[in-house]
Design a protein that fits this description.
globular; mainly alpha; two-stranded antiparallel ribbon
Length: 286
């Protein structure tokens, strides 16, 4: 298993004889499975399909290749950190970077980490996200910065060993990965983020507490490094971020407005509790 930022592993098709795993990836077969609004079934490519944490941990395709939950969490965090740095260097807005992270999570919900270079996949996801969020960046710029990040040590100390066509090689891999991501996700690149419901509700507080807004926003960003976006809808995550931020800052939300913030997020106590618990786990591991 690769620990660095540049280790290419060949494609290994998913096996079709292991429960809910087919050549198409993760398929929900239980009666409670959600379906997409287009009625295309319950494949992970559907943008409005969510899974429980237990399902994600148990049924990840990486399990078949000996990658346990702890290791996959590490891999997930590593490509999200890579995307954050890559996006910032390309001067992309946070929403675009967040979209790239979600696309990457959706991809590895269907494909094993052992079969692909996660940083090449992440680079292609950012390139796609930049286009879908209407903040495009030139392919050559994305490829160049990505390569520099992946090969910083080699470029600084062993540049004479680098192949002459290193740029074209990396560019070809990113382009191939782009097509793979598109087909794996059924060309579904729509991503809704918690930022919008967060600001919509907090704007009703007059004045909106700046510390609460900043902390909730940061908790949402931290949550992107986990599988929360695969489990809960954006407004549920926003609700958890607001509730946890208020607890940390000792802010009484009920006394700040003439409306019920709880109802504004359309959530339930059980969902709120689960989201907050996972956010606390992330805070503890950072």
């Amino acid at each position: 298993m690769a620990k660095g930022w540049d280790h290419h592993l060949p494609y290994q098709p998913a096996r079709s004889n292991e429960g809910s795993w087919t050549s198409g990836g993760f398929i929900r077969t239980d009666d409670n499975a959600s379906t997409s609004s287009s009625g295309t079934g319950t494949s992970v490519g559907s943008a409005d399909l969510y899974f429980s944490r237990e399902e994600i941990d148990r049924c990840s395709p990486s399990r078949r290749d000996g990658i346990d939950v702890h290791e996959e969490n590490h891999l997930r965090h590593s490509y999200c950190s890579f995307l954050q740095n890559l996006g910032m260097r390309l001067q992309l807005p946070q929403t675009t970077i967040a979209t790239a992270m979600v696309l990457c999570h959706r991809f590895f919900l269907r494909r094993s980490h052992a079969s692909y270079d996660r940083f090449v996949i992440a680079t292609s996801c950012l390139f796609l996200a930049a286009k879908s969020e209407e903040t495009p960046r030139p392919l050559n710029s994305v490829v160049l910065v990505s390569y520099e990040m992946c090969h910083r040590h080699e470029l600084a100390n062993f540049h004479y060993r680098m192949p002459q066509d290193w740029f074209e090689q990396h560019k070809e891999r990113v382009v191939e990965a782009e097509q793979l991501v598109l087909t794996t996700l059924d060309f579904e690149l729509t991503v809704q983020h918690p930022y919008k419901p967060l600001m919509a509700v907090l704007s009703k507080f007059v004045p909106a507490p700046t510390a609460l807004v900043h902390m909730a926003w940061n908790l949402i960003n931290d949550g992107l490094h986990s599988s929360l976006c695969l489990q809960y809808k954006p407004h549920h995550i926003a609700a958890g971020a607001v509730f946890l931020s208020a607890q940390i800052l000792n802010i009484d939300l009920a006394s700040m407005g003439k409306f019920s913030w709880w109802q504004e997020f359309h959530t339930t106590p059980a969902i709120l509790d689960n989201v907050v618990r996972q956010m606390l786990e992330l805070c503890g591991s950072s």
